[in-house]
Design goal:
Distance between the termini: 19 Å
Shape: elongated
Number of strands: 19
Number of helices: 6
Bound molecules: flavin-adenine dinucleotide
Helix content: 10-25%
Order of helices and strands: EHEEEHEEEEEEHEHEHEEEEEEEH
């Protein structure tokens, strides 16, 4: 079995950036781009249209086009890409063992860039092929500024800090923002809850759930259900945003690396070093805060540089 200096798992902005840097440092990286687990090859941006906030593209760029450019740049410097999932890894041995769907490889250093998946609810009309990405989103910072949301009533589903943050962000564009919450009290911290309650553009719809998303080409209204008395009413809507958390894609690690209480890989502050020496993490899988393409790419660069320095300290050139 071939032992590689660096194996990268994941092909979003973080994984490809790590690959570009590792390849240019002559580390001959191998990258598992994924197939079914945790999204698709190319990562989350493959599921979106215009990316308006990635620097270098003043007119915006389509998500899949951007990811194709990342991939080509990684390949140009010699990254070897395997189009399959990693099913498990063994971090108890050196070199590490990486078990893919159809092959096993060894790695002196491992970079984990498997992203996080936004949680969504199974609401009629909100799914793929329905109004998902046609007014239904899971990222206000990514999509909120799009013209379809301007001066419209927007609905944020959730009750934690991120729901409040997303709602406050959307007030810049919306005519009104409704936070739809199943209970009669927010889970958000006291200070965030107060900001939501005091905000003149935000209204909290307590004990409520969206039963159905409706519209023509894009979202036009929602069917709102009162969970206390069972009544329903239709409300005009320009958009629906899920803000119910993310699931970091770490199942294949089988608990071998430390994570926080909701599953994000923990890294040493200011670095990409994980709890296992020689294993580095970058992108959304270790980032509960920013979760943007540019921050994922930046941390991918950090992971490759950290891996390169560690390999050199270990005398693995
Ligand atoms: C609909 C949508 C729109 C967005 N719009 C924007 C935007 O406009 N601007 C912006 O900055 N950000 C946007 N984001 C956020 C952005 O996409 C993410 O922050 C970014 O993609 C994170 O990059 P990443 O490399 O960490 O992970 P991801 O992009 O999630 O990539 C993870 C990769 O890991 C692979 N993988 C997972 N598990 C395995 C496994 N077991 N084996 C092998 N491979 C595996 C996946 O196949 C995938 O290739 C958007 C997100 C979504 C969902």
């Amino acid at each position: 079995m071939k032992t590689n200096k660096v194996v990268i798992i994941g092909s979003g902005p973080a994984g490809y950036t790590a690959a570009i840097y590792a390849a240019r440092a002559n580390l001959s990286p191998v990258l598992f781009e994924g197939f079914m687990s945790g999204g698709s090859p190319g990562g989350q941006l493959m599921t979106t249209t215009d990316v308006e906030n990635y620097p270098g593209f003043p007119d915006g760029v389509m998500g899949p086009v951007l990811m194709d450019l990342f991939r080509r740049q990684a390949e140009r410097f010699g990254t070897k890409i395997f189009s399959e999932d990693v099913e498990w890894v063994d971090l108890s041995r050196r070199p590490f063992l990486v078990h893919g769907a159809s092959r096993e490889v060894e790695a002196h250093a491992l970079i984990i860039a498997t992203g996080a998946t936004a949680k969504r609810l199974d609401i009629e009309g909100a799914g793929d092929g329905e109004f998902w990405q046609k007014g239904v989103s899971a990222c206000a910072v990514c999509d909120g500024a799009a013209p379809i949301f301007r001066n419209k009533a927007l609905f944020v589903i959730g009750g934690g800090d991120s729901a409040v943050e997303e709602a406050i962000f959307l007030t810049k564009y919306a005519s009104r923002v409704y936070i739809v919450h199943r209970r009669d009290e927010l889970r958000a911290s006291k200070i965030m809850a107060e900001r939501a309650l005091k905000h003149p553009k935000i209204e909290i719809l307590w004990n409520s759930a969206i039963d159905k998303v409706m519209g023509d080409q894009i979202v036009g209204s929602v069917l709102l259900k009162n969970l206390q008395n069972g009544s329903s009413k239709e409300m005009e809507a320009g958009g629906v945003f899920f803000a119910i958390g993310h699931q970091p894609n770490t199942a294949f690690l089988n608990g071998q690396i430390a994570t926080n209480e909701v599953g994000y890989i923990t890294v040493e502050a200011g670095s990409s070093r994980t709890s296992v020496t020689g294993v580095f993490a970058c992108g959304d899988v270790q980032d509960p805060t920013y979760r943007q393409a540019i921050t994922a790419a930046g941390s991918g660069c950090m992971a490759a540089l950290d891996a390169e320095r560690w390999l050199s300290e270990e005398g693995i050139e």
